[in-house]
Every structure is written in structure tokens, then in C-alpha cells.
Amino acid sequence: QVQLVESGGGLVQAGESLRLSCAASGSFFSILIMGWYRQAPGKQRELVATITSGGSTRYADSVKGRFTISRDNAKNTVYLQMNSLKPEDTAGYYCHVTALAGGKLDDYWGQGTQVIVSE
What we know:
Radius of gyration: 14 Å
Strand content: over 45%
Number of strands: 11
Distance between the termini: 40 Å
Order of helices and strands: EEEEEEEEEEE
Number of helices: 0
Structural class: mainly beta
Largest sheet: 7 strands, mixed
């Protein structure tokens, strides 16, 4: 089992920055992929960014050049640096990991942290 604890959300003005963190704990052998998804009111959850254990990254087109994902494998923590925030970035941001635990691969989700970007 993997528990995920997110932090760093909040209310900011357009153009400002926020940094999200997500720490994984529990009983697992390894975490393969860590990432962030977001869900705005009335919309489906969408991928924001992912990073593999080897450091390969993937971004949604809407955040490329503004957001940076990184991870600290020693701390089992993933970060999302969000710069030049826009009102359309307003959403609940959810940490996601794919981990090897109990001999099988599983997906785990955090509770979410709210990001609100005002005009």
C-alpha cells in the first residue's frame, strides 16, 4: 500500500507561482512513475505532468514551458513547480503514482490540493 500526502496548493494571482509537493509512504518495493493530474469543476481529470524513476518527463501541452516536474527518489517525493499561472490552471491537483507493492503494479491517488488562480 502507498499513501500520498500533497501540499502546496493555494490562492494566487495570475502570473504568480506555486510549488506542489507529494510525498509517498507505506509498504512498497519501488515507485515507477509519479505525476500530477488536475480536475476543474465540470471537467474530466487530465494529465498535467509525469516523471519516471529515470527522470523522463511528459507534460500536457497547456503547461509546457510553465510547469516543471521533478522528483527526489530518496524521499519518494514529487514536485510540481508552476510558474506564470493562469486562471485556467484553477483546479484540484491530484498526485498519482504507479508503484510495485505486494508483488504487483498498482495506481495510487492523493486526496488532492486546490489551486485557485485569480485574474
